[in-house]
Specification:
- The complex is a heterodimer of chains A (269) and B (272).
- The longest helix of chain A has 18 residues, at 174-191.
- In chain A, the strands form two sheets. Chain A has a six-stranded mixed beta sheet with strand order 6-7-8-3-9-10.
- Chain A contains eleven helices and ten strands.
- The N and C termini of chain A lie far apart (75 Å).
- The mean pLDDT of chain A is 86.
- In chain A, α3 (99-110) packs across α4 and α3 packs parallel to α5 (144-155).
- By secondary structure, chain A is of the alpha/beta class.
- Chain B has one domain.
- Chain B contains ten helices and no strands.
- Chain B has helices spanning 2-43, 46-50, 52-62, 67-91, 98-136, 139-145, 150-188, 193-203, 206-234, 239-268.
- The mean pLDDT of chain B is 91.
- Classes of the chains: A alpha/beta (269), B mainly alpha (272).
- The interface between A and B is medium-sized, with 21 and 14 residues.
C-alpha cells in the first residue's frame, strides 16, 4: 500500500482556453488532514473536482489509492468514488428528503443493506455529528451550521477512506465553526481516513491541520506544517497568512491610469 | 474619412450575417447536446425499470397534481364546444349531431393539444425548475460524487413520468370535455340525449380517432418531457439561468406541440 493516498504531479487543467491548474504537484499522506489554501478563484475547488474524477486533467498524473484516475472508465471511477466522501460548500443536501433520508441516501443507493441496519447506521452517523434528534427535520428547517453537519454525516455515511471538504468554514458562526473543525479532525482519526480541506480560513484550519499547501494561479507556491507556513518569509505566503491588504497580490485590479480615467490631465490643461 | 465610414457599415453588415451564422451553429450544437442527453436518459433507464417507485413518485408530482387543472379545463372546453357547436349546427337543423362534433374535436385535436400545452406549463416547467435548482445547489454534483448517476436517478424517472402521464391526462381531459358538451348540449339546450350519444358512437372510429389521438398525446409527452429535463439539466446554475430555462421549457414545448400536431395530423388523417 503506497504511503500517499493522493499523488499528483505536473497536473494541468483548463476550461477551454482558460488554464486553471498549471503543472501542479501535491501529495496527501494516508491518515493525515491536509489543507489546500489560496485566494478565491485560484483553482482549489477545481482541483478537488479533478481528484474526484468529475473533471479530466489535460496533462499530468493523478493517482488516488494506487489507481490512475485519468485512465479509469466510468465503472472504475464510480468504484473509486465509493472510497471518497465529499462535503460541498453549501452542504448540497437533497431538499426533497429529510435529514434521515439524506444520510441514508448513499447507503440505499450503493449497498443492499436491509432497512433496519440502514436505520441504525444513519442514527450512528447523525449521533457522531450531534444531530440524532434532528433526523426528522427537512433541510429547510436547519441552520447553516446544522446542514453542514448533516452533509458531513452523509459524506461519511459509507466510511470513506478519503474525505474532501470544499470550503467547510464559509458562512458559519464561531460556535458552528469550532464544531465543524473539531469534527473534521475527530472523524478523520476515528475512521482512519485521509482528509483534504480546501479553505481560505487560516485561523480555524491551522488548529486541525497536519500539513498545508498554498496555491496561487494554478500552482503550489508554498507548503509545510502550520507552524512553518505561519513563519514563512515568502511574500505571498506572508500576505495570505497574515491577511495583509497589499503586497504580492495588489489591492487594485489592473486598469488604466487613475488620473487619466478621471480626465485630470485634460482638466489641468 | 469616407473610406473608413463605408468599411464600418460593411463591417456591421457582415457582423449581422456572422451573428446569424453563429446563432445557427449554436442552435445545432444545443440540439446535438439535447439529443445526447436524451440518448443517455434512455440508456440509463434501467434504474427506473428496476425501481418503479421512483417513476411512480414523479407520476404523482407531474400527473396527479395536474389533475385539477386538466379536469376543470376539459370541462370548460367541452362546454364551450357544446355551446358553439349547437349555435352553428342549429342553423342547418343538425343539432342532433352535436355529440359527433364534440367527440371528434376533442379526440383528434383539442384533447391531446390542450392537455399537452397545460401539462407543459404546469408540470414541464416544474421539472425544469427542480432539476435546474438541484444543479445550482450542487445536489447533482453531490450525487455524482456518491457514485450515483444523476441522469439515472433524477432525470430518467422524471422523463418517463411525463411520457406516462400525458396520454392518461389526455384521456381524462377528453372524457371530461365530452361530459361538458353533454351538460350544455343535452341538459341545458335540450338536444336529444339518444341522438347525442348514438350518433357519437356510430361516427367515432376506435382506430382512426381514439388511437390516433392517443398516439399524438404520446408524441407530445415525449417532446415535453425531453424539453423539460434537458432545459433543467442544461440550465446555467444561477437564479437567472433557472428562470430562463423554465421559460424556455414552456415556449419551446408549446411551439413543438403545435408543430408536431400539424405534422401528425397531416400524416394521420389523410383520408379526409
Amino acid at each position: 500500500m503506497p504511503s500517499d493516498f493522493v499523488e499528483i504531479s505536473g497536473l494541468h487543467f483548463g476550461y477551454g482556453r482558460r488554464k486553471i491548474l498549471k503543472g501542479l504537484d501535491l501529495r496527501v499522506p494516508r491518515g493525515k488532514v491536509v489543507s489546500i489554501m489560496g485566494g478565491s478563484g485560484c483553482g482549489k475547488t477545481t482541483l478537488l473536482r479533478v481528484i474526484g474524477g468529475a473533471l479530466r486533467p489535460s496533462a499530468g498524473t493523478l493517482i488516488v489509492d494506487g489507481e490512475s484516475v485519468n485512465e479509469l472508465d466510468r465503472d472504475g471511477l464510480y468504484r473509486l468514488r465509493r472510497k471518497m466522501g465529499m462535503l460541498f460548500q453549501l452542504g448540497a443536501l437533497f431538499t426533497d428528503l429529510s435529514v434521515f433520508d439524506n444520510v441514508a441516501f448513499p447507503m440505499r443507493e450503493r449497498t443492499d443493506l436491509p432497512e433496519p441496519i440502514v436505520r441504525d447506521l444513519v442514527l450512528m452517523k447523525l449521533h457522531a455529528v450531534g444531530l440524532r434528534g434532528a433526523s426528522k427535520l427537512m433541510p429547510n428547517e436547519l441552520s447553516g451550521g446544522m446542514s453542514r453537519r448533516v452533509a458531513l454525516a452523509r459524506a461519511v455515511a459509507l466510511d470513506p477512506q478519503l474525505i474532501m471538504y470544499d470550503e467547510p468554514f464559509t458562512g458559519l458562526d464561531p460556535i458552528s465553526l469550532g464544531v465543524i473543525s473539531n469534527l473534521i479532525r475527530t472523524l478523520n482519526d476515528a475512521l482512519g481516513a485521509t482528509s483534504i480541506v480546501v479553505t481560505h480560513d487560516v485561523r480555524e484550519s491551522m488548529k486541525i491541520l497536519d500539513y498545508c499547501y498554498l496555491m496561487a494561479e494554478g500552482q503550489i507556491v508554498a507548503q509545510g506544517t502550520p507552524a512553518e507556513m505561519l513563519g514563512s518569509e515568502l511574500p505571498y505566503a506572508r500576505q495570505f497568512f497574515h491577511g495583509e491588504i497589499d503586497g504580492a497580490v495588489p489591492f487594485h485590479y489592473p486598469g488604466t491610469d487613475y488620473g487619466a480615467e478621471l480626465g485630470l490631465a485634460t482638466r489641468a490643461r | 474619412m469616407p473610406n473608413s465610414g463605408s468599411r464600418h457599415v460593411l463591417d456591421n453588415k457582415w457582423s449581422a450575417v456572422s451573428g446569424l451564422g453563429r446563432q445557427a451553429v449554436e442552435a445545432f450544437l444545443r440540439l446535438g447536446y439535447a439529443t445526447r442527453v436524451l440518448g443517455l436518459t434512455l440508456m440509463n433507464s434501467n434504474v427506473s425499470a428496476r425501481r418503479p417507485r421512483l417513476v411512480v413518485r414523479e407520476v404523482y408530482f407531474s400527473g396527479v397534481l395536474s389533475l385539477v387543472i386538466i379536469l376543470v379545463s376539459g370541462l370548460f372546453v367541452g362546454m364551450v364546444l357544446g355551446l358553439q357547436g349547437y349555435q352553428t349546427l342549429k342553423v342547418y337543423g343538425a343539432e342532433s349531431s352535436l355529440g359527433v362534433l364534440v367527440a371528434f374535436s376533442l379526440l383528434r385535436e383539442l384533447g391531446p393539444v390542450i392537455t399537452a400545452l397545460l401539462f407543459a406549463s404546469r408540470a414541464g416547467s416544474a421539472v425544469t425548475a427542480e432539476i435546474g435548482l438541484m444543479k445550482a445547489t450542487e445536489q447533482l454534483r453531490a450525487m455524482e460524487m456518491m457514485a450515483v448517476d444523476p441522469i439515472a436517478r433524477v432525470v430518467a424517472p422524471r422523463f418517463w413520468a411525463g411520457v406516462i402521464s400525458t396520454p392518461l391526462l389526455t384521456a381524462m381531459f377528453t372524457a371530461m370535455g365530452i361530459y361538458g358538451g353533454y351538460l350544455v348540449g343535452v341538459i341545458l339546450l335540450g338536444v336529444d340525449q339518444g341522438s347525442f350519444w348514438s350518433q357519437m358512437q356510430s361516427a367515432v372510429d376506435f382506430r382512426e380517432d381514439v388511437v390516433n389521438g392517443l398516439l399524438k398525446s404520446i408524441a407530445f409527452g415525449i417532446a415535453i418531457s425531453w424539453i423539460a429535463v434537458f432545459e433543467g439539466y442544461d440550465a446555467p446554475p444561477t437564479a437567472e439561468g433557472v428562470s430562463g430555462a423554465t421559460t424556455r421549457t414552456v415556449v419551446t414545448s408549446a411551439l413543438t406541440i403545435l408543430f408536431l400536431d400539424y405534422i401528425l395530423t397531416s400524416l394521420m388523417f389523410r383520408g379526409f
